[in-house]
Specification:
Radius of gyration: 23 Å
Strand content: 35-45%
Shape: elongated
Largest sheet: 15 strands, mixed
Distance between the termini: 84 Å
């Protein structure tokens, strides 16, 4: 009897495994993944029509192409060495783009994109692309309009159809605002680490003042060069220690 029970259990397990990955207990899937044989999910090769769950990480190395279907009309496609996580909080679904390129076709269940601390959202029917290269995020709207927010921006920014916008998202942004927003400075949630408040004659204070002086032209270059990513990349890389500081000459 014991041997017979063991055989039945083994047979049942084999039947279950033949149906592919078993759904995570108690967790509803976000959508369905698909792609070529180079796409990986959580470090493993993607299986046919694999379910996507919150926390999954998708990788599309090189020119590999992967996609996630949130609903019949909501699809996001990944390529160009893309690496992104699938996230959900309540009814909100978003993709955490760490690197590469994602193209989003919004449907009846909108999906947002978070990249380098910033957030890109759009209404149903919108088509937009997001590319993350080092510290620069590029948002292109093919149809409709999208909204860029968070990531140190002073205020949300609308990207209209046909526009291509590059933003140096910072989390939180140095100086507490986005140099391309055209707005005024706004204090961020970060506390300015100003060594001059402790000792105005210290070496750290002199270096801090020199950095602020260096970041002024970088900020201006980033603001007036929407098609050239280099000024924004330099601004994001060099001026990060000034996060939360707003008293800079502009």
């Amino acid at each position: 009897m014991r041997l017979s029970t063991t055989r039945y259990l083994g047979l049942s397990l084999s039947v279950l495994l033949s149906f592919g990955p078993i759904a995570q207990a108690g967790v509803a899937p976000v959508g369905t993944l698909s792609g070529d044989n180079k796409v990986k999910v959580n470090g493993k090769s993607l299986t046919s029509s694999q379910l996507a769950f919150p926390g999954d990480t998708i990788e599309a190395p090189g020119a590999a192409m992967g996609s996630i279907e949130i609903s019949p009309n909501s699809v996001a496609r990944f390529t160009a060495a893309a690496r992104a996580s699938v996230e959900r909080s309540g009814q909100e679904v978003w993709l955490g783009l760490q690197n590469g390129y994602v193209s989003v076709h919004e449907g009846d269940k909108p999906v947002a994109v978070r990249a380098h601390g910033g957030k890109i959202t759009a209404a149903s029917g919108t088509v937009f692309d997001v590319a993350q290269v080092k510290d620069t995020t590029t948002v292109t709207v093919v149809k409709g309009s999208a909204i860029i927010s968070e990531g140190g921006l002073a205020a949300p920014r609308v990207v209209k159809q046909g526009e291509n916008v590059q933003v140096a998202f910072l989390e939180p942004g140095p100086l507490g605002f986005d140099p391309q927003s055209g707005g005024t400075s706004k204090k961020s949630e970060s506390t300015c680490n100003d060594p001059c408040k402790k000792d105005g004659n210290s070496k750290e204070c002199k270096e801090f003042k020199a950095l602020k002086k260096q970041c002024t032209p970088l900020r201006k270059s980033c603001a007036v060069s929407p098609k050239d990513p280099k000024p924004c990349q330099e601004y994001g890389r060099i001026c990060r220690p000034l996060a939360g500081c707003v008293d800079i000459t502009v």
